[in-house]
Amino acid sequence: SRQLQEKAVRTRTAAFNCLRQLASSLPGCLGEHASSLVPGVVRALKDASANPLRIEALAFLQLALSTHPPAVFQPHAATLVPTVLSLVEDRYYKITAEALRVSAELARVLRPSPPDPPTFDFAALVAPLFTCVSARLVAQDQDQEVKERAIECVGAVVCRLGDLHAEALPALLPVLLERMRNEMTRIAAVKTFALLAAAKVDAQLASPLAGTGGSVLQAVVGELANFLRKSDKPLRQAALSALDTIVTCHAAALAPADYDGVLEQMPPLLSDADLHVAHLALGVARSLVLQAADATVPKLAPAIVPRTLSLLQSPLLQGYALKSAFDFLAALVAHGAKPLDFSSLTKRILALADSDGTAASRHSLGVLSQAIAACATEAKAPLRASTVDAFVKQLSAPSESPHKRVLALICLGEIGAKNDLSAHKGLLPAVMAAFDVNEEEYKAAASYALGHVAAGNLSFYLPHLLKEVEAGKHEYLMLSALNELAKSGGASLAAVVPQLLPTLFTFAERDEEGVRNVVAECIGRLAAAAPGPVLPELESRLSHASPNVRSVVVHALRFTLTEEARRAVPPSTLHKFLGALGDEDLKVRRGALLTLNCIAHSRPATLRDPISGGELLPLLYGETAKRPELVHQVDLGPFKHFVDDGLELRKAAFECMDTLLSKPVVRERLELSPFVARLAEGLADDADIKMRCHAMLVALSALPAGQPVLTGALDTLLEPLRKTLIAQLKDNAVPQQVERHDDLVRSAMRAVRALERLPEAETVPKLGELVRNTLKAGRLADKYAAVCAEEEAKPADGE
Fold first, then answer.
1. Read out DSSP for 422-464?
2. Three-state SS letters, 329-374
3. How far apart are the first and last CA of the chain?
4. Cα distances (angstroms) measured from residue 256 to each of 226, 250, 337, 444, 578
5. 223/217 Cα distance (integer angstroms)
6. Which of 551, 565, 630, 658 lies closest to 595, judged by CA?
7. How far, rounded to the nearest angstrom, does the alpha carbon of residue 47 sit from its chain's CA centroid?
8. Are 392 and 424 in contact (CB under 8 A)?
9. How many whole angstroms separate alpha carbon 134 and alpha carbon 799?
10. Which of 97, 299, 413, 616 could cross-link 449 (Cys pair, CB 3.0–4.6 Å)?
């Protein structure tokens, strides 16, 4: 704050920049100092001789207001509001735009939780705030950024203070509507109307609109419906989000004719060409069913429902769009009106399984079964029970085709994961009988069904499942069922951990890698659900005598870190698991490398101390070296083949290095000289490792800290790169080998091009010689020219 009182403009500007970085890095840290900072801020804002200073002060103030509790700045509102509003009227557009952003935050400070009563007296500030931002909204001749900030600011002010100055709203809303009809400002206006629709104060959207015979809200919905046919993707997304909010919050204020325009434009949006738009459109359709079913459900059947069912067959359908499709179908079932009731919809969904006369793919079967489960969960209990019985009957019907019985099993699993099916006495015997069928796909579906059904009632099904696991008849399939249970069991798994762990650790000693992998995944998911009891058990087995057990334990943590509960694993536990990098067994070390890579992806900050301490990187770098003792010869009759048992280990180690380099929070702790030395070794290794090292060289060349290190190591890097570039395949090479070799050469060229662009690259004669004699002359010249052109075009694409 002392620096803000200095006379030098540059000093004060730098002080605001520093404060802004501080507020961004540590939200709320300036709360105790607000009273000493505000005078310096106000002084800077009033300094008309230094526009850069005022812009920096406004940027800091906006960030400070947004990252601190409103109570911190409420005592200073009487000082800040008039000062900021005076800058809203400034002639310099950048200052006006920043002042409008600050004004929007000030509205939140004045009234953080509308419509709750004010916590302090700010009544005198409301009218000037409305007057100032309204003047900017209606002004015509101003910069585009100012227009957009004015629209956003008006929305924020009305949402917070609209009921305290209601007389201003009838004049503001038509102006906002005009801005929505203007191509330059319509996206900002659409988002503002969505904000007003969700406001907790009365924004008077249902008030009459002069000359239309309808309300402002109805005119907005009409415009939004028209936007759905536009090719502007951001506009369509904003329009769909706004429609969803309006339908959810103001359905009673709309007429059936308003919905017709929306429904007419929606079917083309339900396509896998743009899954995000499809997700938003399905969200609107669901809201229409929930809020205005009588007016909309009869009109959904001709086009929207068929397009939704067609979307379910797309191999691209996933994520939010998939969930939105399920939610929409579930809403239709909950409403229950024919012809979109439960029975009709499930019949149509099941018909999709072989709509083209061929069996559906496993992905398609999974999607359709989840759709059936979503509908069954919302259906009335008798309808759900009859559906389950029908699927059970299909399992024992020899006339049914195999893929229909597979679908029946998967449907039972999906329904059982969400509902307790223990009352269906024939279910368990029918599922268990499927394990004796001589079809691998059928048995895998049975394992999936058993695990998911057990998750719906652990106390009923788990004892039977554990008994089958211990019986050993279908060992791998039963363990897979336990794994499926762990995937879908949720919080209820914590209660059954004592029953599951002993059995799982028994199988951890098996020699079969497939069994160990399933056990590791299952334990990892249990650790995510119940870290308290499971993690100590894992830690205690890090020193187990069996390398198989140690391998399972290390792999298990990797699956824990992929779950949402990964934050529950303390850093101290992560560090103990990383000690397995020094294990004597290959598969344990490889598991530790995969786990390290997972930690670097999901929780990179926890690796800063191990890297700084110097105990982690030597172990990692040690795994990148090629070890002759791990290479052995296999006699294949007339041929001899060399097998490198350490190759997968080295691939995992270089992948970890790549991940560490990509994380800024870890990269700043890396000593780059030994890092680059390992890359030099990797450039002479297997083709996959070479290409990863090429990519890391390119990434390092873009880092200021990496450039001098690379320049100093060019002599060691260039020779392996040259050997890769001049290598030629034998005449009898197959097309796949030719394509693979071409990819490798292009990758090496990109690396050389990145090195060539280093600031001091011209001081290294070997690099110039390689480029002139090998890449710009002879058979590689055209390829290198094409690579250079691609690299030159990349910045333009980014712009």
1. TT-TTHHHHHHHGGGSS-HHHHHHHHHHHHHHHHH-HHHHHHH
2. HHHHHHHCCCCCCHHHHHHHHHHHHHCCCCCCCHHHHHHHHHHHHH
3. 39
4. 17, 13, 17, 49, 62
5. 10
6. 551
7. 44
8. yes
9. 35
10. 413
Q: Considering only CA atoms, which of 9, 97, 8, 79 is closest in space to residue 37?
A: 79
Q: Identify residue 44 by its one-letter amino acid code.
A: A
CA 452 to chain CA centroid, Å, is 26
* Partner residues linked to 640 by β-bridges: 635
Looking at the chain, how many residues does it have?
A: 799
**Token code pair at residue 529:** 């659900």
CA distance 221 to 131: 27
Asked whether the beta carbons of 136 and 176 are under 8 A apart, the reply is no
Tell me if the bond preceding 339 is cis, omega within 30° of 0. Answer: yes
**Contact assessment for residue 345 and residue 332, using Cβ atoms and an 8 Å cutoff:** yes
Assessment of whether the complete model's pTM goes beyond 0.70: yes
Residue type, 451: G
CB burial of residue 200 (10 Å; 0-12, 13-18, 19+): middle
CB environment 124-150: b (16+ within 10 A), e (fewer): ebbeebbebbbebbeeeeeeeebbbbb
Q: Which token pair is 541?
A: 């087995």
CA 494 to chain centre: 27
Q: Is the pLDDT of residue 795 over 70?
A: no
Which residues pair with residue 215 across a beta bridge? 208
User: Percent of the chain at pLDDT above 90?
Assistant: 72
All residues at 6 or more sequence positions from 553 whose CB lies less than 8 Å from its CB, including other chains: 508, 520, 523, 538, 541, 542, 544, 577
Coil/strand/helix, residue 127: helix
Residue with tokens 């004597």: 584
Check residue 358 and give its pLDDT. Answer: 57
Half-sphere exposure of 105 (CA within 13 A, CB side): 24
| H-type alpha helices, 635-686 | 647-662, 664-667, 672-682
* Segment 49-72 mean pLDDT: 94
- Grouping H, G, I as helix, E, B as strand and the rest as coil, residue 639 is strand
H/E element holding 633? strand 631-636
Angle at the Cα of 243 (from 239 to 245), degrees rounded to 5? 120
CA proximity to 688, closest of 743, 752, 753, 628: 743
Mean pLDDT score across all residues of the chain:
91
Asked if residues 630 and 644 have their Cβ atoms less than 8 Å apart, the reply is yes
Pairs from 17-25 (Cβ < 8 Å, separation ≥ 24): 17/56, 17/60, 19/60, 19/64, 20/56, 20/59, 20/60, 20/63, 23/60, 23/63, 23/64, 23/67, 23/68, 24/63, 24/67
Tokens found for residue 470: 């211990």
* Whether the Cβ atoms of residue 400 and residue 407 lie closer than 8 Å to each other: no
Token pair in block for residue 527: 């650790």
Highest mean pLDDT, choosing among 180-194, 358-372, 472-486: 180-194
Element (H, E) at 599: helix 586-602
Beta bridge partners of 632: 643
| Amino acid at position 665, single letter | V
Question: Looking at the predicted structure, is the pLDDT value of residue 551 above 90?
Answer: yes
Task: State which amino acid sits at residue 312.
Answer: L
